[in-house]
Amino acid sequence: MPLHQASLPCAAFCRPRASGGRKAVLALILAGFTGAMTAAPALAQDQSSAPHVSVELNAAEPGEGSCKLSFLIVNSHAEPIEKAVYETVLFNGNGQVERLTLFDFGELPAGRPRVRQFTVNGLACENLSQILINGAHECTAPGLAPEACEQGLELATRTDVELIG
Q1: For residue 152, which of 5, 7, 90, 138 sits 20 to 30 Å off, Cα-Cα?
Q2: Strand pairing partners for 159?
Q3: Which residues of the chain register pLDDT less than 50?
Q4: Which helix (DSSP H) or strand (DSSP E) does residue 117 occupy?
Q5: What are φ and ψ of residue 27, in 5° steps?
Q6: In three state form, how does the secondary structure of 38-90 look?
Q7: Which distant-in-sequence residues (6+ apart) come within 8 Å of 154 by Cβ?
Q8: pLDDT digit string (tens) for 29-63?
Q9: In which element (H, E) is residue 33 found?
Q10: Pick from 127, 149, 2, 37: which is nearest to 83 by CA?
């Protein structure tokens, strides 16, 4: 709600008081408003900063009778993941399943980005509309919980192909 449409009457805040007047009251209101506005993003950051794996579809490049998919993947856990294999579903332009496959992202060191590329033969990139990360087929991470590859999985894309999970 814009400040000029506040639900409380101005008389409750705008009259000069012995404690410093209108400027002091407005400064307190502004400080409270600013604090509330900065607290919400901080809470969101705390919630999203829980250790997780993030996968970004960074590029989809057409090849001769194939489509090369480039992913940027980051393991934000404190421990490395020795092997991460995701069951992946590729959808065509009509939204129909084109194929179900496994993408082996291999070793994911803690806190370091990695790029992994997969060439999908017999698929034209322009016929790819969506990629579904269906779940972790394998997640080998001795120092982490068994669900480390799936819990809080964060997905993003920099292409026209939607990445969901």
Answers
A1: 90
A2: none
A3: 1-19, 24-47
A4: strand 113-121
A5: -65, -40
A6: HHHHHHHHHHHCCCCEEEEEEEEEEECCEEEEEEEEEECCCCCEEEEEEEEEE
A7: 48, 52, 53, 54, 55
A8: 444 444 444 443 443 344 457 999 999 999 999 99
A9: helix 21-48
A10: 149
